[in-house]
Amino acid sequence: MDMRRLGKTGLSIAPIVFGGNVFGWTADEKTSFELLDGFFDAGFNTIDTADVYSAWVDGHEGGESEIIIGKWLKRGHVARDKAVIVTKVGFDNNGRKTGLGKAWIAEAVEASLRRMQTDYIDLYLAHKPDPGVPHEETLEAFAKLKQQGKIRSVGCSNFDADLLQDTLDVAAKTGLPRYDVVQPEYNLYTRDKFEGPLADLCVKEDIGVISYYALAAGFLSGKYRTTKDIEGAARAYRVGDYLNDKGLRILAALDKVAAESGARPAEVAIAWLIAKPAVTAPIASATNNSQLQSLTRAASLKLSADAIALLDRAGA
Asked: Which InterPro entries does the record match to this protein (predicted)?
């Protein structure tokens, strides 16, 4: 497996991160265990989750994904030090304001550690910006957790270039730990949230990038091409946003490259992300063994320069 250095965290990760939002949602506990076993057996080593997953499901309160990861870790299929665990803090939960204040971070990290049955989190991310809390307060909270050994590195998700630069300036001025990883939304369809100033800043400052929505909620797999296709789908409320001229143009390009390379459209979409110099590893999910095998193939799929250029143009 081609391991990649994750910015300045000291961590090395495989080129695909398993998206744990499906655990306890579209993948039950037994299926989640099987998927995690297979993922690590194939040479991958990183799981992404959040304390709020999967609070959007009726009857859930958040933390369901972390609980399943904790039970899986306890089974011992993989030694704890061989798994890189990423989780997040600060996303509002069922109307409950959480944020990035020091009191909530101190409380939330204990809950995440307890759910995942572990003594430490490899990478702890600020899930989204909190304009009501100064960067210094948040970074001080993370610094304390690092000193206590409860987290090993810190990063942020959904921060734009200006906001990230602000945090870097505060870290440099105060000597507090900076965000060494960014988790942006980035895929063949949604490119403006990362490409340009944010990607340039990450390259300049040696910041690791683990992008989410690699398959645009499953749209880039090619299985949703009409409104009829999304009827009853768990992610129908998201996929519908991509069913337009731009989306269909991207699917046509994916179909072409897939046919030429003998790969599936989803594998091509993920390989396109892996090939981007600013991206360390995209996050992608699987809910069955067939999808898991597809992730494995995507990690080793090398796209030609012509194929990448075609895909670039389709989603420009």
From this structure: AKR_Detox_Biosynth, NAD(P)_OxRdtase_dom_sf, NADP_OxRdtase_dom
